[in-house]
Amino acid sequence: MKAIERWSILTCPECGHSEKMEMPTDACLWFHECSHCKMLLKPKPGDCCVFCSWGSVPCPPIQAGQGDCCQN
Ligand SMILES: [Zn+2]
User: Fold this and answer.
1) Measured between alpha carbons, how far is 10 from 49 in angstroms, rounded to an integer?
2) Left if phi > 0, otherwise alpha if psi is -120 to 50, otherwise beta: which for 62?
3) Rounded CA gap, 53 and 43, in Å?
4) CA atoms within 13 A on the CB side of 7
5) What's the pLDDT tens digit per position in 32-56?
6) Does 71 have pLDDT greater than 60?
7) CA of 38 to the centre of ligand 1 (A)
8) DSSP H or E run through 18
């Protein structure tokens, strides 16, 4: 069984600040406010959540091969 990495390092595209965040396994995170510059991070077009766009590892559903965590 493949281990799912629950911790991701989110890097702010505005100021370069990075912070370690625990990802929820049963929900997606669309927005995250940078604790340094207060910019609201949003997913890039085509990405399902902020972790897939700005994190060091993709979100748990992607890691598990289940596809996007929040398809619309
Ligand atoms: Zn920032």
Assistant:
1) 11
2) alpha
3) 6
4) 3
5) 999 999 999 999 999 989 999 999 9
6) no
7) 6
8) strand 18-22
Whole-number Å distance, alpha carbon 28 to ligand 1 midpoint, is 20
Residue 50, Cβ density class (10 Å: 0-12 exposed, 13-18 middle, ≥19 buried): buried
Strand, helix or coil for residue 10: strand
What is this structure's pTM?
Answer: 0.83
> How much distance in Å is there from the Cα of 66 to the middle of ligand 1?
30
C-alpha 40 to ligand 1 mean position (Å): 8
Residues 36 and 44: beta-carbon distance below 8 Å: no
Q: What is the DSSP letter of 58?
A: -
